[in-house]
Design brief:
The complex is a heterodimer of chains A (311) and B (253). Chain A has 311 residues and is α/β, with parallel strands linked by helices. Chain A contains ten helices and 14 strands. In chain A, strand 12 (249-251) and strand 13 form a beta hairpin. In chain B, helix 1 packs parallel to helix 5 (99-128), helix 2 (21-43) packs antiparallel against helix 3 (55-86) and helix 3 packs across helix 9 (203-216). The two termini of chain B are 25 Å apart. Classes of the chains: A alpha/beta (311), B mainly alpha (253). Bound molecules: adenosine-5'-diphosphate and magnesium ion.
């Protein structure tokens, strides 16, 4: 049974704007799922519905088999949320703020566990600081501590590394890995492809409220990953020879490099024929290099044609 | 019941009051004492007794009501408005906490603060006048009912308010006039008949009258009616809060 199961979920805000359109998604136990999408795609809305901050207009969500509306106590106890905004008080101490969160989730005080969470997040030295005295990065760490302190089984990270320094980003990724080891399911939203590429098992691409595709990261790259062959010539060409004119070739600005785009999954990639034609045309090859398209290019492509490529 | 959560919200709100002790306690108490000195001692000595009660003593219940009505509304409205404003409310909304528990936490804390203020004002007043409470149990009952219902009312305002201006407009334009015209400083029997009738539409009149009765055994309107009106107001506030939470009004889109 998936840990989170979303079916036919839609959200129309009071102003009539439809932020989510018939989302179906199953999240597996223990996986790291990245929801990738540009600003305004509906990522935060989706997470907010699952966590109980926004009401769905249509559809259902279950967490560990329990309905998020009817059995909200059960589902919310399982969930931890790190919100996108730095929504924190000002005159509260880090320690108190974290204890508050644990209490809200009906857990009895456990100073030893709280200490561990704070230490893991390099917040222990700051435990007596007021929230308003902390830097942005430190505040984000506090938000993470607040989300983890009730020992959730599912963790939502809404744009965890947006505007965060390199050190915190590294720490965050390490933390995600550590939580995964402990069996926590992690859903993170991001508009940084590298992030999804670096830590996710599966990637869902969301745009204009629609879930365009969800797939294993590797499979996604496999499905959509075109490859490019860069052929460096010994001497530049100003114009392609006539024999090469009907091949999908681009010439670099300086005429030194020919770029051939192909699908590596086809039996006939066309490379062999290309090589022969180039040789016949009398061009001399100096070097060659293949380039895989990154998740980034896949993403751009998906968003451009609304996922038709996958149909 | 998620008792831990209620306790957390309650403690958080109480702590907030004690970190801003000047604003939460000192200022309402000081202004009440000033009223007391000015109206009770200075001018009061030249005003004849009302219902055979020396004026300085007569205004004590009204002053307590004035303080706790405004403070209940101010505290409870700010308590829920502020986390909405900063976005911190996400935490409460995403926690396994029911609406009733949220209300108990926030409103309970606001009502407690008002009770503390009432206690201190009564204590202070006892230094100026010879205090006499005819029906202490009823006095407590009125006090409690008022603190709770007006904290609920404040909570509603805090949920309704879109900005800081909204937050202050109701206390300023509604609560303060109603309280001043509610007989804090006079008996409505002292008004011309027309204004007496108008006063009967002011809910605060019933509060102050009932509360004053618990001190002196005399009232402008019957005590039963006073209790009934306070209970009605409480019920109305409860219904509104219930509706607000049920529909997610201004809390959940
Ligand atoms: N409370 C709201 N009322 C109306 N529209 C909203 C509200 N919250 C978000 N939206 C709109 O819904 C869309 C999705 O927003 P959001 O879920 O925050 O996207 P993302 O997190 O992917 O950037 C945006 O166009 C946004 O303007
Ligand atoms: Mg967002």
């Amino acid at each position: 049974m998936p840990i989170v199961s979303i079916s036919n979920l839609s959200k129309t805000y009071n102003d009539g704007f439809q932020a989510l359109k018939n989302i179906d998604l199953e999240i597996q136990r223990g996986e790291i799922l990245a929801l990738l999408g540009p600003n305004g795609a509906g990522k935060t809305t989706l997470i907010s519905i699952i966590c109980g901050i926004v009401n769905a207009s249509k559809g259902t969500v279950t967490v560990d088999g329990a309905d998020i509306v009817k059995d909200y106590r059960t589902t919310r106890e399982l969930i931890g949320l790190v919100p996108q905004e730095l929504a924190l008080g000002a005159f509260e101490k880090v320690w108190d703020s974290v204890c508050f969160s644990r209490g809200l989730f009906a857990k009895k005080p456990d100073p030893a566990y709280i200490e561990k969470v704070l230490r893991d997040l390099s917040l222990w030295d700051k435990r007596n600081s007021l929230l308003m005295e902390l830097s942005g990065g430190m505040k984000r760490r506090v938000l993470i501590a607040k989300a983890l302190v009730h020992e959730p089984r599912v963790l939502f990270l809404d744009e965890p590394t947006a505007g965060v320094d390199v050190e915190l980003r590294k720490d965050m990724w390490a933390l995600v890995e550590q939580l995964r080891q402990a069996g926590v399911t992690i859903i993170l939203t991001t508009h940084y492809i590298e992030e999804a590429e670096a830590i996710a098992d599966r990637v869902g691409v969301i745009n204009r409220g629609e879930l365009l595709v969800v797939d294993e990261k590797q499979a996604l790259m496999h499905k959509l990953g075109k490859r490019q062959l860069e052929i460096e010539l010994a001497s530049p060409v100003s114009e392609l020879p006539a024999s090469l004119s009907n091949v999908a070739l681009e010439v670099s600005q300086d005429g030194h490099v020919l770029i051939y785009t192909y699908d590596p999954h086809k039996t006939d990639t066309g490379i062999d024929a290309l090589m022969k034609t180039i040789a016949a045309a009398g061009l001399i090859i100096k070097d060659m290099n293949t380039v895989k398209s990154s998740l980034e290019e896949i993403f751009v492509k998906l968003i451009k044609n609304g996922g038709e490529e996958l149909a | 019941m998620n008792m831990y959560a209620i306790q957390m919200i309650y403690k958080y709100e109480m702590k907030r009051a004690f970190t801003t002790i000047g604003q939460s306690f000192a200022s309402p108490i000081l202004s009440t004492v000033l009223y007391f000195v000015v109206f009770g001692s200075a001018i009061g000595s030249r005003i004849e007794a009302v219902d055979n009660i020396p004026y300085g003593l007569f205004i004590v219940p009204g002053l307590v009501m004035l303080a706790i009505l405004t403070q209940s509304v101010a505290n409870a409205s700010f308590g829920i408005f502020f986390p909405r404003f900063t976005g911190q409310i996400y935490e409460v909304l995403s926690a396994p906490v029911s609406f009733i528990e949220i209300v108990i936490g926030y409103v309970g804390a606001a009502a407690t603060k008002s009770l503390i203020i009432a206690g201190i004002i009564l204590l202070t007043a006892s230094f100026f006048v010879e205090m006499h409470i005819a029906h202490p149990v009823w006095m407590l009952a009125f006090l409690l009912l008022t603190c709770i219902s007006f904290s609920l009312f404040g909570f509603i305002i805090g949920l309704w308010a879109k900005d800081f201006e909204n937050l202050q407009i109701i206390p300023l334009l509604v609560i303060t006039p109603l309280v001043f015209l509610g007989g804090s400083f006079y008996s409505i029997n002292m008004l011309p008949p027309f204004w007496q009738t108008v006063s009967l539409f002011n809910p605060v009149v019933y509060l102050i009258s009932g509360f004053r009765w618990s001190f002196f055994g005399v009232a402008d309107v019957s005590v039963g009616l006073s209790l009934f009106m306070v209970a009605l107001f409480l019920l109305a506030c409860l219904l509104i809060v219930w509706w607000m939470f049920k529909t997610g009004y201004r809390l959940k889109q």
